[in-house]
Amino acid sequence: ERWAKSARIQMARERLGAQRIAGLGFRERILNWLKEQPRFKSFDPDSSFVGTVKYDQDKQSMQIELNGKKYDFCNVEERLFDSFSGAGSKGAFFNREIKSLHNCGAW
Q1: Comparing C-alpha atoms, which of 45, 31, 58 is closest to residue 91?
Q2: Quick check: 107 pLDDT over 50?
């Protein structure tokens, strides 16, 4: 998480440069820019069933590609996403922990 924050700050510096916005200092501009940025995590498992998994930390939602089709899962706590990314069998974890509990419909 610390690395992600540092990366976002560096991106903000590059994007905002020396530009002044409405009299705000650099620190205030960075903080405003960071507040506007969505926070995501993702992983690409080596699985025949589960494809790319994306997690929106702000909305607590997850998008999972299953056999090429994308599905939206809501009310997902970050610790569940972290457990999913570390699971030995992504398909078994999905079927046991996510499938029926958090499905919000197909994308």
Answers
A1: 45
A2: no
